[in-house]
Amino acid sequence: MALEWVVLGYTAAAEAIILLLLTMPGFNRLGKGLNAVARSALKPLLTVVPFCAFLLLDIYWKFEVRPVCDGAICSPAEHLRHQKSVMKSQRNALLIAMSLLLYWLLYRVTILRLQLQRMDEQLQRLKNKD
Question: Can you give the three-state secondary structure of the chain, one letter per residue?
């Protein structure tokens, strides 16, 4: 299961890098190229949505079937292992949420930049007509 989380982490990092490049000022000359790269990356990165849903179901299943560790029933080692499991589940849920949020932000920023590019082209055509 660790490989799945590594893949999700790398995907979130790629989304963050592309989003950072798109929103960084000073890359106006590279805007069309960055838009094209982001648009072409959106379709393969869409696989992150069902992948996150699967991993979220995995976290839920682990939460439901994990042994309950209450008070004097378990040893300190078992209690520590239980706490580590809870922390890992919380970390993984946060990674899922961030990955989905980054994908949505990348999608919206790409759409907004594309609309802005189209408006600039229309403005240039109107200026050229006059």
Answer: CHHHHHHHHHHHHHHHHHHHHHHCCCCCCCHHHHHHHHHHHHHHHCCHHHHHHHHHHHHHHHHHHCCCCCHHHCCHHHHHHHHHHHHHHHHHHHHHHHHHHHHHHHHHHHHHHHHHHHHHHHHHHHHHHC
